[in-house]
Protein 1
Amino acid sequence: MNRERLIRIAGQLGVDAEEAGRAADADEPVIARALVLRRIWNEIDALSASTGLLQAVPAGRRLVEAGADVDDLQALTAHAAYEMAFSVLFGLSEGMAADMPIDAADLPGVALMEIDSDGDLTDRNLVGIHESLLSADPSGMQGHRFLR
């Protein structure tokens, strides 16, 4: 994909043009990274906007019935989802074996890799993707919306 098209597509996914250009020049998987981060934030936003989860889980239903503020519970749920996403991305990027009860040298590695439109590996790893999670917050608040 040529540089201009990559920057245009990345921009449609919310990536700053300057960042997209830098990533394109460094042959980094900027579009794959943006797709993963966008999907995660879409899920976090769906949790924070829905009361369905609070009604579906008995503990949530009890909290609402006891008078807990629904907006606070939704923010808490979304923040928990963010923390889980960060933890999983960190593990994929930095190694999953850190807290396992056996020697990490005996374990295989795990990687989040880009594939092309045909499903073939591009050999471009999304290393460090957890570091981009906050800055990819589509609200522009870098996760601070959970701290209101």
Protein 2
Amino acid sequence: MDRRQFLSRSLAAVSVAAMATPAMGRAAEEGNRMVIHIVLFKFMTTATSKAIDDLMAQVRALPKEIPGIVDVACGRNVSPRSQAYTHAITLRFRNRAALDAFYAHPAHLRLIRESIKPIVSELLPVDYEDTPTHP
């Protein structure tokens, strides 16, 4: 291949890449957006304050055991519109793959089995991707 063919093919490749980059960038961005996992809790009437506090402490400790958790917040609901959901947790994940890994992680499954199921009467989970506020 002579220099002119090389330059022509290189220019064509750069042009194709330049046209594909915005779409590819959006796809990559969507796959790497932060994901927020929120769970609202209603506890059984037999749940003790200590058991609820222990659950919240265990949730706060999850980032030490499960990779991909960026931040944890949890606590008692202070809204008068709570519909009997007394506590909430929010976990922020690096991306959807980290959330998927969390769902299958032994520490998460143990938390559900040992600390959530014995004291929770109802829960409401929500997962969503954090989307940019600008176009």
Protein 3
Amino acid sequence: MKAEQLIQTDAADAQGIWTASQQPGAKFVPIKSEAQQTVLALHRLRAQLMKMRIMQTKEIRLLYEFGVALPEGHLALRKGLPEVLRDADRKLERTAQTR
């Protein structure tokens, strides 16, 4: 490759797009409407929120290493978590007092 081809500019991008479009067998993708783009953005956002929720749930489950039993499933965990944390707090206080 020549040195001038490595520089990323709008002109170089346009030339690359034009060159690719001239290739035989190039497949063109239809342009998405604004509604389609909105739906795709919402799906990506939902997937990211679910990923974060799963990560947080797994982090909370680390309390198991301290003898704290947590319910299975997100809804059960969310419902039972306040009581579990109160019990865990009491247990940790007793542990700290005995040391």
Protein 4
Amino acid sequence: MARAKEISASLQLEAQLSRENVQRQKGLTALKQMEDYCQSLARRQAQQQAKFGLTTQQAQRVDQQSQLDNRYLKQKEGVTDTEQLEKITAAYQRAKHALQVGWAQEDQQQGDWFAGMQQGIVEYGETAHHVFAATQKLASHTIAEAA
């Protein structure tokens, strides 16, 4: 009988501790979610600050860089293996470099506006010539049929 009371008391204590652990776990989960949300807000605010006064293209580049940075942070979150962290960091560095090379190429293409303008003028001249030739042909054909 005394042993049964001890077992019963032990079971009640274990049940109480289990309920407390569940509540503690819920609290820790909610705290982690709140911390993640606060960090996300801080990153978004920093991103908005970085875009202030920039052109649309520059703002898009800030967005792309922030997206890459956020993905990197998310991928390395919880990873403790040094080798895996090095691989993730190397992949991030390659992606960042590719992004910057793409931007440089885009800037170079846009910077060569004079060549683009010359080509546009040549294409406009060719199109105008084709339109004139087609109009001349139509007029000649119409006059020939009328006569």
